[in-house]
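Catalogue entry: protein
Contents: sequence, fold tokens
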Amino acid sequence: MSITTKAGDKGLTALFTGDRVVKFSPIVEANGTLDELDSFIGEAKHHVPGEMVEVLERIQVQLYDLMAELASRGKYTKVGEEETKWLEGLIHRYEADVQLRAFVLPGSTVGSAKLDVCRAVARRAERRVARLVLDYGFGNNALVYLNRLSDLLFIMARVIENREGKVKEVR
């Protein structure tokens, strides 16, 4: 099997449903942003404490499932309430390690900077998926998941900075 199919040379791509859509379709834009997020998370794994690596790898698998959901126009759903509750549990666990009193400057360490980039891309993905939900009626699970994911990435970055004594608050 060759990676080069030339099927996209005319500006179209196939969804899981077999439908062909333009490469700038909102579905492709959302999935492209999720793919970008997945790549940034892959990079971040090399700069975070060991216990966070497993969390990020599980998130990467869940992002693939979200991409499949969007590429099937909501016909395939694997990420739902259970995965969102898992994120919420992690958020609460990490919040116990950090006392936020003010806005913080992102990226005070290499690890936190990598997670802050992931957070920003997750929020962009959330905006792309919001369009699918509001204009096309699918992607609700992805929207909720991405909202929690951006919160988790934020708090994980603050935990790293807190552990290293490098939180920089904006006053």
